[in-house]
């Protein structure tokens, strides 16, 4: 203990210096506590108050994120003894997470299935805030320990969210599957982390001895450790071969939770991956030990093919959206193979993720809408609904077109940026895998059109004799769906607006 | 306000008006659409009259030589050390485009008149119709590859719904087949487009650009880039520029359509309702031909020259295969669909000849086929609306029952098969002149291709005249008996009003082809000169 005394002032100063960089997260923890207390204080009526506090709080935190940009004028900052990294791309990811979480929080009680929970949704709001905190940490983590901590934090919170409607058999089955799968992949990731620590001698990705240490070890062993690590990341990102949980969980969980899992957690996991890959890519000579470009290309190709082709066979809308999100992950992985000093790959990835998340949130909102009003879950149930609910159906068409990547929507521009970034790196390196990635991306876009168009096909091109079983629903849901589809088209026409 | 921008976006504006109008006013939607297309026709004729000809306005590969140009900064994304992504809203017209634009406007008016027959979901139909209108005119005017691609893809979605919702018995199958087939070609076109973008630098700003005209100038290419002429890069083992040309050619060949990529056409044309068939046959096919001229031949001229033999071969195969298939059809609409395949083969043959006569003939054939296929599909629609049957063998001797209709059918059939005095003759003749001239002038095509093209004309006469004899001459025998006889009334005013101008145009263009050739000539000469031919 006495040996540490001389170091204490230095360590304390480090901690205090890190606090300004940690402000949004401090606000998040305060918000979490406030929410818990509000729920206790107000009891029965607390639902709408908690909702307002949660959404308002997230908007405040988003503004704090933007304020952090000022702190970054001197460049990116490592703080809390190299556990966390703040970077302007990190701020972009955090901003996306906050904005999308705020939209999703609004959406939670518009879904009849979720809102009919006996205990109310206030606990869910607190869990979401805690998840957002974990996701902020994920996006900033640069130490193997902080990576694991943040991933676990998000995972445990997501287990609770998926199993929230535990009295429903399907929901609790999905929750249990998610817990088991998630726990297993976390354990494997921890094993990979411990191997990396054993080889490198340090947990820090930047600085430290990790990378030089890894260079000296047998490449096969390093590859094994990294593969085990990627199993954990892959679980969150849902790439092959750890994607098997996605269809069952997205189908079993309530629609807003699936929306949350498919958008925000993916953004956080991508942010984590970017931070993780950066030191490896920039360390000279590491590609001889483990070629990340090749690895990500192969995984990307297989994920795109598996996700898109499996989606064509689905008859349940939720499962189809689940497989489509797997396909989108594969596509987004393309943007990561371009890792030069410039930021084109990361810009492309950010825009693509935002366009995809926005459209996906819209799609899941529409799943809720049609499930509330017409009890429609399978493709066949959608027959002829286009004429009964014209606004929602037209919005559905626009959103599905954006997910496919057809002009003039944000999704097209996202795909275009990702293709450009892969082409740029292909021009320099002439690696055949990049060309295969692009060709696979093009082919799977066409395949994805086939299954996305099944919904408008049923909505508009087919008729139904059904006259009963229609209910009316919250008009807020329809309004937000309309706003989202409008945004998708506007972003497609004027993408500059986002990349300010 | 730039007249081109007005021309492109007027239908979109009217489409938005229709969406916002209450459904109780649905009887007025067709008039609003007709008004929109008439305004468009007026604007395009104004442009045609103001179009200046002369070698300084030829405008194939020089921005200053295009007319009615509007170039506005649209998207500029700052991508760090890679510079800015510069996408402009760049529209302009030259000789080839003006012919297409005027033809499209006329066809749109006729299609709007044909839309009178649509009974259900009028709001959806007319708003999708007007959106399609915008996209189609935009494709012809766009000079920035990104903008071109956006308009090109924007056509697909309205067509899917137009075919799928208001079409015939197999409409779902036809619609999805059309959408998937065309999207497949387009997506690979996107990849080549991005490759070209990364290879070309705008000399003024130093950024990568999508400007098609800059892409035509080999000096603008980065010396190390993938599509540079000098660098001779390879993609998957083949020369990169050849791969680029082939991929773009396939994308447009699906649209033209070129055998063997034509299988979507009979289904889509037959199952679509009459106005949509008119737009498909009259305009969409020409987009493929225009794309080949503007983009494939424009950006990759040396590949076009070395591959001219194969392009000509595909043209000849289309002519003969399309005609033979037409000869075998029982369904009148399917027969006309296959005849479209055959006639567009002449366009390909003319382009492949790489001579001024050939390319002028190709453009003329596109214009003439635009009018004549519109007329043909409208005529089929007339009978189908009355009795819901199109089988040739179910009708005999219609001439005595519907004389005015038969007169117009005769004009349409004779004009389509290439009777001198009508526009199709000029188009086909010039394409064949170009093909005949090519062996001696530039060695691109052999003589036998022109000979086969002529045989195609003979086959065209065969199926058209045979159909005329089977359906219209002889004594009256109808499968549906008395019910059909009373249903088959002669043409009403609206139908007469739609068909007569088309017949007149076919005759006028056949007697005075200078109306088209004068505008087109300078650009064609500039194009041939640009390719390096004589």
Helical residues, percent of chain B: 55-70%
N to C succession of SSEs of chain B = HHEEHHHHHHEEHHHHHHHEHHHHEHHH
Q: Into which percentage range does the β-strand content of chain A fall? A: under 5%
Please report the total strand number of chain B as a whole number.
6
Tell me the overall shape of chain A: globular
Sequence of strands across the biggest β-sheet of chain B = 1-2
What's the number of helices of chain B?
A: 22
> Can you tell me the residue ranges of chain B where pLDDT is under 50 for at least 5 consecutive residues?
none
Q: By helix and strand content of chain A, what is the structural category?
A: mainly alpha
Estimate the global geometry of chain B from the Cα principal axes. globular
Largest interchain contact: A-B, 40 and 42 residues
The number of helical elements of chain A comes to: 22
Helix content of chain A: over 70%
Strand order of the largest sheet of chain A: 1-2
Instruction: Report, as a whole number of angstroms, the end-to-end distance of chain B.
Output: 39 Å
Mean pLDDT of chain B: 89
Sheet having the most strands of chain A:
2 strands, antiparallel
Oligomer: heterodimer
């Amino acid at each position: 203990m006495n040996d540490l005394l001389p170091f204490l002032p230095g360590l304390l100063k480090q901690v205090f210096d890190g606090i300004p960089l940690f402000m949004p997260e401090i606000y998040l923890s305060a918000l979490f506590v406030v929410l818990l207390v509000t729920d206790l204080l107000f009891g029965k009526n607390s639902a709408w108050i908690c909702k307002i506090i949660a959404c308002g709080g997230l908007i405040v935190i988003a503004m704090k994120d933007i304020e952090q940009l000022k702190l970054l004028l001197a460049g990116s900052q490592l703080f809390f003894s190299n556990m966390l990294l703040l970077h302007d791309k990190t701020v972009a990811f955090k901003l996306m997470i906050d904005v999308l979480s705020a939209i999703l929080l609004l959406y939670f009680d518009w879904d009849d299935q979720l809102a009919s929970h006996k205990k109310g949704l206030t606990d869910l709001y607190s869990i979401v805030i805690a998840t957002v905190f974990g996701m902020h940490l994920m996006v900033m983590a640069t130490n193997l320990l902080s990576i694991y901590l943040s991933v676990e934090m998000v995972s445990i919170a997501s287990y609770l969210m998926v199993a929230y409607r535990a009295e429903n058999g399907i929901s609790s089955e999905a929750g249990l599957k998610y817990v088991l799968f998630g726990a297993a992949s976390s354990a494997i990731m921890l094993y990979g982390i411990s191997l990396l620590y054993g080889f490198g001698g340090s947990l820090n990705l930047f600085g430290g001895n990790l990378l030089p240490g890894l260079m000296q070890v047998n490449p096969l062993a390093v590859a094994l450790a990294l593969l085990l690590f990627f199993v954990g990341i892959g679980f969150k990102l849902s790439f092959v071969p750890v994607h098997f949980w996605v269809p069952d969980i997205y189908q079993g969980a309530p629609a807003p939770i699936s929306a949350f899992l498919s958008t925000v957690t993916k953004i956080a996991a991508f942010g984590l991956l970017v931070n993780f890959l950066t030191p490896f890519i920039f360390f000279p000579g590491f590609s001889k030990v483990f070629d990340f470009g090749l690895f990500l290309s192969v995984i990307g190709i297989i994920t795109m093919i598996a996700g898109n082709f499996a989606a064509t066979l689905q008859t349940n809308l939720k499962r189809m959206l689940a497989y489509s999100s797997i396909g989108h992950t594969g596509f987004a992985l393309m943007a990561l193979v371009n890792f030069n000093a410039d930021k084109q790959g990361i810009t492309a990835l950010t825009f693509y993720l935002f366009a995809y998340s926005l459209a996906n949130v819209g799609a899941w909102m529409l799943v809720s809408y049609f499930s509330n009003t017409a009890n429609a879950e399978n493709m066949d149930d959608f027959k002829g609904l286009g004429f009964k609910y014209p606004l929602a159906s037209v919005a559905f068409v626009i959103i599905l077109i954006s997910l496919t990547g057809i002009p003039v929507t944000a999704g097209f521009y996202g795909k275009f940026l990702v293709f450009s970034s892969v082409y740029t790196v292909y021009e320099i390196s002439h690696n055949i895998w990049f060309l295969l990635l692009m060709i696979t991306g093009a082919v799977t876009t066409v395949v994805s059109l086939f299954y996305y168009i099944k919904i408008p096909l049923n909505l508009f091109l087919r008729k139904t004799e059904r006259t009963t079983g229609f209910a009316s629903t919250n008009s807020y849901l329809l309004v937000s769906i309309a706003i989202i589809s409008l945004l998708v088209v506007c972003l497609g026409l004027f993408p500059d607006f986002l990349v300010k | 306000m730039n007249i081109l921008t007005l021309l492109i976006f007027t239908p979109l504006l009217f489409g938005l008006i229709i969406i916002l109008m209450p459904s109780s006013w649905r009887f007025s939607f067709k008039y609003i659409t007709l008004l929109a297309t008439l305004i468009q026709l007026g604007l395009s004729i104004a442009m045609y009259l103001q179009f200046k000809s002369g070698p300084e306005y030829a405008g194939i590969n020089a921005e200053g030589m295009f007319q009615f140009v509007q170039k506005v900064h649209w998207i500029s994304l700052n991508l760090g050390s890679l510079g800015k992504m510069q996408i402009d809203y760049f529209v302009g017209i030259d000789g080839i485009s003006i012919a297409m634009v005027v033809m499209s406007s006329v066809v749109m008016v006729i299609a709007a008149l044909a839309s009178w027959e649509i009974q259900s979901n009028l709001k959806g139909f007319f708003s999708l119709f007007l959106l399609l209108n915008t996209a189609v005119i935009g494709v012809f005017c766009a000079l920035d590859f990104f903008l071109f691609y956006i308009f090109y893809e924007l056509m697909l979605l309205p067509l899917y719904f137009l075919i799928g919702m208001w079409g015939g018995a197999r409409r779902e199958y036809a619609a999805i087949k059309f959408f998937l087939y065309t999207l497949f070609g387009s997506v690979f076109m996107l990849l080549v487009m991005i490759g070209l973008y990364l290879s070309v630098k705008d000399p003024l700003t130093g950024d990568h650009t999508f400007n098609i005209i800059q892409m035509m100038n080999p000096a603008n290419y980065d010396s190390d880039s993938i599509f540079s002429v000098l660098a001779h890069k390879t993609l998957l083992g083949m020369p990169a520029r050849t791969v680029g040309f082939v991929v773009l050619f396939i994308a447009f060949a699906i649209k033209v359509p070129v055998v063997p990529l034509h299988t979507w056409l009979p289904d889509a044309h037959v199952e679509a309702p009459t106005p949509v068939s008119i737009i498909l046959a009259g305009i969409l096919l020409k987009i493929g031909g225009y794309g080949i001229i503007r983009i494939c031949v424009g950006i990759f001229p040396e590949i076009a020259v070395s591959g001219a033999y194969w392009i000509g071969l595909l043209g000849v195969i289309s002519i003969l295969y399309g005609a033979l298939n037409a000869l075998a059809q029982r369904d009148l609409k399917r027969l006309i669909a296959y005849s479209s395949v055959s006639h567009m083969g002449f366009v390909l043959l003319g382009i492949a000849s790489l001579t001024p006569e050939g390319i002028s003939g190709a453009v003329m054939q596109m214009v003439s086929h635009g009018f004549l296929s519109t007329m043909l599909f409208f005529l089929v629609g007339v009978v189908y609306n009355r009795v819901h049957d199109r089988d040739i063998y179910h009708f005999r001797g219609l001439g005595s029952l519907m004389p005015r209709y038969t007169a117009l059918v005769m004009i349409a059939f004779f004009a389509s098969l290439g009777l001198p005095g009508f526009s199709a003759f000029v188009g086909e003749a010039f394409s064949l002149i170009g093909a005949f001239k090519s062996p001696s002038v530039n060695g691109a095509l052999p003589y036998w291709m022109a000979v086969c093209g002529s045989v195609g004309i003979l086959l065209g006469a065969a199926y058209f005249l045979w159909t005329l004899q089977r359906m219209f001459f002889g004594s009256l025998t109808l499968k549906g008996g008395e019910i059909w006889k009373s249903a088959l009334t002669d043409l009403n005013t609206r139908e007469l009003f739609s068909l007569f101008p088309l017949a007149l145009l076919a005759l006028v263009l056949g007697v005075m082809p200078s109306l088209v050739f004068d505008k087109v000539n300078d650009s064609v000469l500039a194009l041939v000169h640009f390719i390096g031919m004589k």
